[in-house]
Specification:
Elements lengths: L1 H35 L6 H8 L3 H7 L3 H23 L5 H18 L1 H13 L1 H28 L8 H21 L9 H14 L5
């Protein structure tokens, strides 16, 4: 009985240690990727930064591309998944207000990562594929039903989803980039104010009714 208990405790400790190593690798990969870019980074460098053997990386991640996806996925997707679960009773407008604020917070808290992501995606098809197949497609699956719900309720115009979201996210991304470069020019004191301003502009436009 005692032997079985010790064996289970030992297995639990090993699992925890394995997960900790995985998290160390992801943290090191994030640092190396943002400093050197995707093509300029090697798994050997990431292993050194994580204080593990290079082979340990490939026990957790089959390829460098898979490692990139796992670095970016929690940063980009976790907030959307949380909103979708916690705001089931919200109206589509309320969901998109929360979504907009969440994306602004993401950009503010992960400025280097966001700039790395889009800069690398411009020049490397492998990064674009990783972003789209591994992350953006999942985000679309979550957000699109909220848009369709708004259309069904007559709240939103029946516009094509992808072009509409491209415009929506374009406002978010440009705000984040503009605020980073010209921080002193922003009139809003909080992200909530910025989100409300953009949402009003996106939903109602500039024309007075």
């Amino acid at each position: 009985m005692k032997t079985n208990r010790k064996t289970k405790q030992s297995e639990t400790a090993r699992k925890k240690s394995t997960e900790e190593r995985r998290l160390d690798i992801l943290e090191a990969a994030l640092k190396v990727f943002t400093q050197k870019g995707y093509s300029g980074s090697t798994t050997a460098e990431i292993a050194r930064a994580a204080s593990v053997a290079e082979g340990t990386i490939f026990r957790h991640f089959a390829t460098k591309k898979e490692l990139l996806v796992e670095v970016l996925k929690p940063k980009i997707l976790d907030g959307i998944i949380y909103l979708d679960k916690e705001h089931k009773e919200d109206t589509p407008v309320e969901f998109f207000r929360c979504f907009l604020r969440n994306r602004l917070e993401l950009i503010k808290e992960n400025d280097g990562l966001v700039r790395f992501m889009f800069a690398e995606a411009q020049y490397h098809s492998e990064v674009r594929e990783a972003l789209f197949k591994g992350i953006l497609e999942q985000g679309i699956v979550i957000v699109k039903p909220w848009f369709e719900k708004g259309v069904e309720q007559g709240v939103f115009k029946p516009l094509p989803f992808i072009p509409t979201m491209r415009g929506f996210m374009g406002m978010v991304m440009f705000y984040g980039i503009f605020n980073h470069v010209f921080g002193g020019l922003s009139q809003e004191e909080t992200l909530e104010e910025a989100a409300d301003h953009m949402l009003e502009l996106f939903f109602r436009g500039l024309l007075a009714e």
